Amino acid sequence: MSDGYEFSQFYHASLVAYSPGTTFLATSHLNRIIVRSTSTLQIVRTWTLSLPLFDSDNLAHSSSSLPTSSSSKQRQHHQQQQQHLLNGSTSTSTAKNDEEIKIDSLSWSPDSMYLLAHSLQPKTAWIFGLASDGSGESGEIARIGGTGAEGLIKVEWGKKGGEVLAWSDHGLKLSIYDLTTGATSVIQNPKSPQNCHTYSPDYRYIAVAEKHLGKEYVGVYDVLDGYTLFRHFPLRTTDVQGIAWSPCGKYIAAWDSPLSYSIHIHSPIGPHLTQFLSSSPTFTPAEDPGLGIRTVSWAPGGRFLALGGWDGKVRILESEGWRCVGTIQWGSKAVERDATVWREPIDWLRDTRGRGIIQFDKTPTPALLPSVRPDLSKPNPRTGVSQLSFDRDGTLLLLRLENQPNLIHIHTFLPHPTSESPCIAHLASVNFSHPIRRAEWCPRPGHGNGNGHGDGIADECKGKRIAIVTKQQLIVGNSNDSEKTNGAGAGAGAAVYFWDAEAGWEEDDEIEDEAGGGGGNSSDVGHGKGGMMEGVGVPCRSAFSASDIHWAPDGSSLLIHDRAQSQFCVLYDGGEAEAQAQAYEVQRPPASLPTSLSASTPMYGGIRSSVDFVPETEPWPQDLYAEDNRPVLEEGLTFIEEGDEEESAWGDGGGAIGTGWSAAKQAMEGVIV
């Protein structure tokens, strides 16, 4: 496992998003968006969201709708009333509404040049440029939506980079806005914004599930040709739940509603290739299909397709012949003697006051596994496969069941990433004290030496790690504790867990064999018989519950988020944190700071320091500035002044640090940060 972990300070944020290159971290709190440097968590840029003056639109509408027989005096009086309303009470109500804006989604463009924020309440989306200032009221370069019957229920970035996909309510249309040319393309009657659109592996085409005149279709559109229709073919589903393009680009899978266990495989150019039903020859006739398919996941490479059913079984389909080549089913007992069952130590968070690292206990097999009997008489019973995901090279498979909320199961899948046939075996199960909230594979190898050049072995280890958070109960310390008396506060029961396939538990007999020269093959996955499982306490001074996690795209850090308290912190590996500090030459903050500034205590021996969020009226901390009194920017961002007039550090509307961001765009183009 890791040599050690280091935590950042806690910051307020209701939403968080890493930039695709991990250089920046975007957060939102109330109606403010803050961009921080991932390595130091220093503030790089901010925006404050404000609603457009919709009354000005109403004014134009009202003036144009006046009867043609009205006298000019009546028209002038009406316009004066509207203008008074716009300049007077409207500004007060608008300011109040700005404070009530809730950002529901926040995402980066694929090139890390823009941020997309969406709020459901005003049906509006804002687009901000990291290296350019917009002319909008909030500093945005573009705004989508507003009032209207169509609404705006979801927005996301297109894979091309400079395009935004926007879904209207009631499945009316999908609009694609090109930020470069200003052109708009429309796809009519999309089935759903959830799971019903998918891109080809090279992002050249997008497939969208549609519904026209009561029948379901798939439309394939050419992204590079202005989203022109390339293919359009009907589906054999009654209520399609999702579509997924295979990683090899040869197939599009479409699965039906829970009323029937069926998945259909199409060629991207239209022909229906095959279908897998409960009546298929390789589907055991004696088995009850239950409520159909719940989760679908392509294995890397596109040769295999995993289906997680509402019956709690996982079926593996092979693309050659589309037959079921394997089934995974879990009961209440783990019987494989070669597998490892990990169990979380009881009350370790309370005993350690939420601090420190503890290894899980190994349970002898066969071992009983806690399960919950679903109540099928009630709607939405707790049954079926809730998560099904492969690691980055397809050698391991993570499985979670709804009726086993405290367990994760890890299976071997491919003996080697290039293997043609799977070898499915139970590798490990982990039994937690509380239900699992989220489990996520490390996305890809991290920067092993901190400068972007990984170190082979260390990188491969990172690709086979899982981070997990559970629904932990908050632990409040005793008021008589000396630690609380000294101001440190009570320990809270927050923790994050890691399973590592490459680490292993060495038994005494294995150590003796190695001493005698009979070491085993260290290249085998899980050579330690089930990897290693450990829990890491999150040091915090107040109530903090780890409700969500987000891996950095390069796997170098893990963001831990408390959605209820709108707080987050970042966890770094000890070795990588030191390497990053050397690469970025992060220094301690000065000994004395302005009295109006809330400065953090230097952490980890000066390796990383951070600054608390400060109001607009307070001065910026000096460690954000270089010797020439200009902001310190990251990854090629150059501060270039455009004029002699100096501007507030927050800008006129709580915007950028300084005024030179538009010129900095040239330095960032082509660089994913």
UniProtKB/TrEMBL annotation:
Residues 62-84 have a biased composition (Low complexity). Residues 62-96 are annotated as: Disordered. Residues 85-95 have a biased composition (Polar residues). It comes from the Eukaryota. Residues 286-334 form the Anaphase-promoting complex subunit 4-like WD40 domain. Pfam families: ANAPC4_WD40 (PF12894). InterPro entries: Apc4-like_WD40_dom, Centrosome-WD_assoc, WD40/YVTN_repeat-like_dom_sf, WD40_repeat_dom_sf. GO terms for biological process: microtubule anchoring at mitotic spindle pole body. GO terms for cellular component: microtubule organizing center; MWP complex. This is Anaphase-promoting complex subunit 4-like WD40 domain-containing protein.
